[in-house]
Design brief:
CATH topology of the largest domain: Rossmann fold
Shape: globular
Strand order of the largest sheet: 6-7-8-3-9-10
Keywords: ATP-binding, Cell cycle, Cell division, Nucleotide-binding
GO molecular function, one term: ATP binding
GO biological process, one term: cell division
Helix content: 25-40%
Number of helices: 7
Radius of gyration: 17 Å
Bound molecules: adenosine-5'-triphosphate
Largest sheet: 6 strands, mixed
CATH class of the largest domain: Alpha Beta
Number of strands: 10
Protein name: Cell division ATP-binding protein FtsE
CATH architecture of the largest domain: 3-Layer(aba) Sandwich
Pfam family, one: ABC_tran
Length: 223
């Protein structure tokens, strides 16, 4: 689905990420961990082509990023759902309208039944008409996840999707991610939370990537 070959990235100083080679296979579930500032968000940005590697190759859905036109990149990105760390919404629009935004911007109609089902799935149907500032942290995180999956992407990349929520809510969000994986979605979750990773590994086959010393390596089973 997404592959890195000898990828390096630098914001201008020294290399933040060096010689990264890995492949996210269809249907796989990966965690990405590492200390604050190690480059987790940067890695995700490379994976959804918001950033181009300084060297090396990123391949999205079997096509090398460098060979893609701007339209091709946009098409590939539509197959990737992103849950951003800061879950931004348009505060003057209802939750339901925010959810429908990916359809609005691409001039497509959203199916009201799909929208209802999706909001029920994340436990937010009763808040469909609420404005984003009225939502709690956990509700925002679940709304961000719903927004990422509404266009039925093949891959979901989530940046700290359980940041700023309590353990019970973290487990609820994890359950949603596990359900998505069981439906066949390829998932990558950046997180600091090793307890969350342990919990996930008890339920599914998840691999753990760790950023250390500017490299991304597969962690052993000793988490
Ligand atoms: N646009 C940018 N320009 C320059 N430096 C940047 C930029 N974005 C991030 N950095 C730097 O790159 C490093 C990695 O940042 P990144 O956000 O990828 O780390 P992270 O592992 O996701 O951190 P956290 O866990 O705190 O979210 C940090 O030192 C950060 O300051």
């Amino acid at each position: 689905m997404i592959a890195f070959e000898n990828v390096a990235y630098s914001y201008g100083g020294g290399e933040l990420l060096t010689d990264v080679s890995l492949r996210l296979a269809p249907g796989s579930f990966h965690f990405l961990t590492g200390p604050s500032g190690a480059g987790k968000s940067t890695f995700l940005k490379l994976a959804y082509a918001e950033l181009k590697p300084t060297s090396g190759r990123v391949t999205l859905f079997d096509r090398e990023l460098a060979s893609l036109t701007r339209d091709d990149v946009a098409r590939s990105r539509r197959r990737i759902g992103i849950v951003h760390q800061d879950c931004k919404f348009l505060d003057h629009m209802t939750l339901a309208a925010n959810m429908a935004l990916p359809f609005t911007v691409s001039d497509r109609e959203s199916d009201p039944q799909d929208m209802d089902d999706l909001l029920s799935w994340v436990g937010l149907k009763h808040l469909a008409d609420a404005l984003p500032p009225q939502l709690s942290g956990g509700e925002r995180q679940r709304a961000a996840l719903a927004r990422a999956v509404i266009v039925d992407p093949d891959v979901i990349l989530a940046d700290e999707p359980t940041g700023n929520v309590d353990w019970e809510m973290s487990l609820r969000i994890l359950t949603l991610l596990v359900e998505l994986n069981r439906m066949g979605k390829t998932i990558l979750v950046a997180t600091h939370d090793l307890n969350l990773i342990r919990q996930a590994k008890a339920q599914i086959q998840a691999r753990v990537l760790r950023i250390a010393g500017h490299r991304v390596q597969l962690a052993g089973a000793d988490l």
